[in-house]
């Protein structure tokens, strides 16, 4: 047993140095995994060997074995559902620890540890802080949302560090006295307890990291030489103009009420704040609207025009989207004539 532990430690050190394991049993060649995952995989290998030896002594059926140059090795191959990599030792590459029991109880663990790690990283990169509380198991038959502990187990150090910081930022942002520095390159944020709203300049705060001056009340850079009341009067006309622009160019998210401006994309919208999906034209829940015309609200363009699908139309408005569609059709016809 002592020799096995030493061998496992040496293999772990090799893996952490980025070396490929000659036998290729633990991870696919050319890949690296987090230290915690590598250590877990190696411990799994030791446990597997002991279990097979015990089952052999008890006369239980054994997995298939192969012989190469006089050496016999146990093989239990399995293919990852994402990368299609075939691993010769499934128990090493596919996690089945207690921390992932909510997933393993629902479906086969058919995604390798490398792809699980990459999945978490891509979610954070593409969705930012919005993903922190909604990183789900990639298996299509599973709706489990990974917990903090599970992500710590699966992610590499750099990804988990980013995730951990974003979780901290989310929790801090919920504190009423927390303000983040508004200077572009400064990432500092802090809680201010010495605010005096009754004083003319009691809402003036300073970033402890870079010294940038801000207004606590207005969540903005400090309004130079103006008290908050004077600044409010100056902003009144601007505010009315802003409200008119918002009314003409944005719609509130049906779920969280945050104003959303539509770009030139399709009419299937996803709120960047709460991740709610809806039809931009009628604000119907996308889970209902995606079923067809009947899922859209009365008066919606897509409820009366079967030839047009929300995800096939692109533009800021329906009129613009129709013009774009007509332009694409004309270009298609011209290209077709050229190819004849």
Note down, in words, how this protein is organized.
The longest helix has 23 residues. Helix content is 40%, strand content 11%. A hairpin with a 6-residue loop joins strand 12 and strand 13. By secondary structure, it is an alpha+beta fold. The N terminus is likely disordered. The chain has a three-stranded antiparallel β-sheet, with no helix packed on it. A two-stranded antiparallel sheet has the order 1-2. The protein is built from eleven helices and 13 strands. The chain has three domains: 169 residues, Herpes Virus-1, CATH 3.30.40; 65 residues, no CATH class; 87 residues, no CATH class.
Outline:
The protein is of the alpha+beta class and about 350 residues long.
């Amino acid at each position: 047993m002592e020799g096995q532990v030493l061998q496992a430690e040496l293999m772990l050190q090799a893996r952490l140095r980025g070396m490929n394991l000659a036998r290729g049993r633990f991870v696919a060649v050319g890949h690296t995994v987090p230290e915690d995952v590598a250590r877990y995989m190696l411990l799994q290998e030791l446990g597997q060997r002991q279990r097979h030896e015990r089952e052999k002594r008890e006369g239980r059926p054994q997995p298939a074995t192969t012989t190469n140059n006089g050496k016999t090795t146990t093989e239990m191959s399995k293919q990852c559902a994402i990368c299609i990599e075939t691993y010769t030792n499934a128990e090493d590459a596919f996690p089945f620890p207690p921390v992932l029991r909510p997933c393993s109880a629902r479906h086969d663990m058919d995604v390798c540890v490398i792809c699980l790690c990459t999945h978490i990283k891509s979610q954070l990169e593409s969705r930012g802080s919005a993903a922190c509380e909604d990183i789900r198991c990639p298996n299509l038959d599973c709706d489990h949302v990974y917990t903090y502990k599970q992500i710590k187990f699966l992610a590499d150090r750099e990804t988990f560090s980013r995730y951990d910081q974003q979780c901290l930022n989310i929790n801090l942002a919920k504190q009423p006295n927390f303000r983040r520095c508004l200077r572009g390159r400064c990432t500092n944020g802090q809680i201010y307890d010495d605010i005096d709203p009754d004083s003319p300049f009691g809402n003036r705060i300073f970033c402890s990291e870079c010294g940038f001056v801000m207004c606590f009340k207005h969540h903005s850079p400090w309004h130079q030489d103006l008290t908050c009341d004077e600044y409010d009067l100056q902003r009144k006309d601007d505010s009315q103009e802003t409200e008119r622009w918002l009314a003409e160019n944005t719609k509130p998210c049906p779920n969280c009420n945050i104003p959303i401006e539509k770009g030139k994309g399709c009419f299937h919208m996803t709120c960047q704040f709460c991740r709610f999906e809806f039809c931009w034209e009628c604000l119907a829940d996308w889970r209902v609207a995606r079923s067809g015309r009947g899922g859209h609200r009365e008066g919606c363009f897509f409820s009366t025009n079967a030839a047009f699908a929300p995800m096939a139309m692109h533009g800021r408005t329906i009129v613009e989207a129709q013009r774009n569609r007509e332009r694409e059709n004309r270009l298609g016809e011209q290209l077709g004539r050229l190819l004849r």
